[in-house]
Write a structure and sequence with these properties.
By secondary structure, the chain is an alpha/beta fold. The chain contains 15 helices and 20 strands. The structure holds flavin-adenine dinucleotide. The site of flavin-adenine dinucleotide has 35 residues, from helix 1 and helix 14.
């Protein structure tokens, strides 16, 4: 244990997975905690919307962690609420459907011998180049090309990445590829496709999902926090954070004109880093403010259409690469849980459209968005006819994806070294650390920051920094999970969340 200053009150900013996990762990040990959330609901990006009997996540969320202890904690928290989902994903590319993860037979059948041969040749060229060069990739395009070769980059990475990030792969940091695909060489993918390895927990498995939607994870944490005497205050945006000295903060929260103040010894912030910098008093230096303002987040518009159809697809996710289709990913919530639809005669499709605040897509009206989505679903994918559509819902989410531009590391260093001066302030989470977290990473950060505040030697900043491929477990850990199954539906695999 390290020494700790006494905790008279912890203020947690944001009731998403990171903030609630911090509050959950702190209240478990009896610490006084108030969580402030600007929305009228908990969950943050893990929101599940309910609309006229239909339920859907902002984009289908699945639970995955390589950390056995965290998984055990999750199963206990969600006891009795989980269903098992069989995973089947596809990629729509150049008008054809490819299995995901990619299988060789399927690529050959879809792309043809000539394209497949070109892909193999460019991959081999990349391997040879890699053998003679130790050059670090300067951007995402170089990172993918070095790993997969030019042709596979063009086929399976470029369009989708550019749709998600809204800029050429040359303008995105190679770190993103590191976090998402390190270790997934074509060689590994091919070898695993040909020879099913027993020590790899497969990508194509099953996963568990909260029957009523992913937001239940946060709702369950909030319920337990409140049971233990912690407070979760909704519709309470934090407006300013005054630092009067070490472990001495005053927070202003609530609606303009009717705000209140709270004193705290510790502040755990999960709100976007750029917003936090603006709220701090004394005001941050101009250089810090400039760095914070230039951190960019990608926004998401979720367009959901409700259908008088029993089912449209059997996919868990469908990745849509073609640039002229407005959405980049689709999921059908009914394929995740029957409880996501009002009855068996209906289904829905959730279409994720990536954009930036103030761009043309963001500025389309809800009617225009629904019309465009239905046109693409009907005329391009042949998934439905217009008469099937009985209802729709459009949700806009700013700050959904931290954009790793080529300069983001420097900006983060400037901001973080300034924030170190605020003794008792901790930043964690996807927006809070400006790190491409999944929900399990944010929860783990929350749990670790709580331990740190309680005086243990912990560094929440180390979560989600490993450079191993994210979606599979090999060797000993895979065996360990297999040999002691908790229940037949226990999940260990993951799609990338992008
Ligand atoms: C489309 C999509 C699909 C995803 N799929 C998956 C998946 O399959 N699996 C997975 O594990 N993860 C997935 N993720 C990632 C997951 O949603 C995030 O990692 C997780 O929600 C991050 O939690 P957080 O608590 O760090 O941040 P957030 O969820 O962003 O929570 C931050 C909270 O702070 C609140 N806040 C902001 N400003 C203020 C303020 N001034 N005052 C008070 N409160 C404030 C926000 O309202 C929010 O509730 C996906 C994300 C998206 C967008």
């Amino acid at each position: 244990m390290t020494s700790r200053s006494s905790i008279s009150h912890v203020a947690v900013l944001g009731a998403g997975p990171a903030g609630l996990a911090a509050a959950h762990s702190l209240t478990e040990c009896g610490a006084p905690v108030t969580t402030f959330e600007k929305n009228e609901y908990v969950g943050g990006l893990c929101r599940t919307m309910e609309h006229n009997g239909f339920r859907f996540d902002l984009g289908g969320h699945r639970w995955f962690t390589k950390d056995r202890e965290l998984h055990e904690w999750f199963l206990e928290l969600m006891d009795g609420e989980l269903v098992t989902v069989r995973r089947k994903s596809r990629i729509y590319y150049a008008g054809r459907y490819f299995d995901y993860p990619v299988s060789i037979r399927n690529v050959l059948a879809n792309a043809g011998l000539k394209t497949s041969a070109l892909a193999a040749a460019s991959y081999l060229a990349a391997v040879v180049r890699g053998a003679f060069s130790r050059k670090e990739p300067a951007n995402l395009q170089e990172a993918f090309t070095l790993q997969f070769g030019r042709k596979l980059f063009e086929m399976f990475f470029r369009q989708y990445s550019e749709k998600v990030w809204g800029r050429p792969c040359r303008e995105i940091s190679a770190d993103w590829a590191d976090q998402r695909s390190k270790g997934l060489s074509v060689f590994t993918a091919i070898r695993d496709a040909i020879r099913k390895r027993r020590d790899v927990v497969s990508l194509i498995d099953e996963f568990v999902y909260p029957r009523l939607g992913y937001q239940r994870i946060c709702e369950r944490m909030a319920e337990e926090v409140e049971c233990r005497g912690g407070q979760v205050v909704l519709s309470a945006p934090i407006r300013s954070i005054a630092y009067r000295g070490p472990h001495d903060f005053v927070l202003e929260h609530g609606p303009p004109g009717d705000s209140e103040h709270l004193e705290a010894t510790h502040v755990v912030s999960t709100i976007p880093l750029s917003h936090l910098v603006r709220m701090l008093e004394p005001a941050c230096d101009a250089a810090v403010r400039k760095a914070a303002e230039s951190l960019c987040f990608r926004a998401l518009i979720t367009v959901t259409v409700m259908l008088a159809r029993e089912r449209v697809t059997s996919d868990t996710w469908l990745y849509v690469h073609d640039e002229d289709l407005i959405f980049a990913r689709i999921h059908e919530p009914k394929n995740w849980s029957d409880a996501m639809v009002p009855d068996s005669r209906h289904t829905s499709l959730v279409c994720e459209c990536f954009c930036s605040p103030s761009d043309a897509t963001w500025n389309m009206s809800d009617e225009e968005l629904v019309d465009r989505v239905v046109t693409d679903l009907a005329d391009r994918l042949g998934f439905l006819s217009r008469d099937d559509v009985i209802d729709s819902c459009v949700l806009r989410t700013p700050n959904a994806y931290p954009v790793y531009d080529l300069d983001y590391r420097r900006k983060l260093t400037v901001i973080r070294s300034h924030l170190e001066r605020f003794e008792g302030l901790f930043t964690i989470g996807r927006g809070g650390l400006f790190r491409y977290n999944n929900a399990d990473h944010s929860i783990e950060m929350g749990r670790r920051v709580a331990r740190r505040i309680l005086g243990f030697e912990e560094d929440p900043g180390l979560v989600n920094t490993e450079r191993a491929y994210h979606e599979e477990m090999r060797g000993a850990s895979a065996h360990a999970w297999r040999s002691e199954p908790r229940d037949p539906g226990e999940s260990r695999s993951c799609d990338s969340a992008w």
